[in-house]
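Quick one: structure tokens for this chain, please?
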Amino acid sequence: MKNSFRKLIPVAAALGLVFAASSAQAFTLKNGAGTTYATGVSSLDWNSTGSGVAKNVANGVSLTEGKQFDFLYQANLSSVNGKTTGNFRGNLDSTADGSPNDADAFEFTIVAKLSEYVKTSSVDLKNGTVSATFGLNNVVGANKVAIYYDTKANAFTSAGTGFDDGIMVALLTVDPNVTLSTFTTTIATGNGLGSTKMTASKLEAGDFIDQNYLAGLTKLSFTYDSNLNLPAGDSLTSAFHAGPGNTALFPTYNVKAGDLVFKVDGATSVNVPEPASIMLLGMGMLGLVGAKRRRAPKA
């Protein structure tokens, strides 16, 4: 019995790690100068007018296995899952129309670039659809996501400006090994619907999280979930990452013929392992094993 008890110790610890890894960590959203916008934040909800573009993927028929393409994304923050303060309520501009609600309006924005390829593709002739799944190329610097803070709420979806002209408060790398992306389009109309789930973490040199804006986030991964719709509707845009914020990391891209522009409604949540949870669960399991041992009849 003693040997069995000892063997179960690492099992309890491992299960503790598994359960704790799925626990959410709350953080504080701030303006970099000490003002708190929200506490106990577990997720950031990006505007449904967020837009994405798949470069040079003219239609569903082009979704052949192995096809390589780049994908860009931009959106502004519309709400948070947390306890907001008076500094947040009424001042956050979530319209992305280039004009702030009032003089105190501010914004958080998100931009991303991805290097993708078609993993699988299938044609359903009966329903006239093409379905595909996508993966990310594992190339340094190719899969990046950044969050910006701006005292001027000037994000403008239709022009693609104002999304990266603020202060970069986080830069992360999308993990090619933790991503799931699918899309189905109708051949006759070109309309389509898809979804994306991916994780971004501090994986490469230069990745960071500014504690003056995202306080309490250290060792973490952002889980990003979104729905993709085609046509783009109110997310239609002529450019991505355009305007004064143009950088070598996220250069301006003007939409061209042959590109597909999507409506992207997404949100990010944060997950980190919590040592306290690991300890409590591990000790709890060891307690159960110990209790069973005490109840065991003597030989």
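The CA atoms of residues 17 and 196 lie 26 Å apart.
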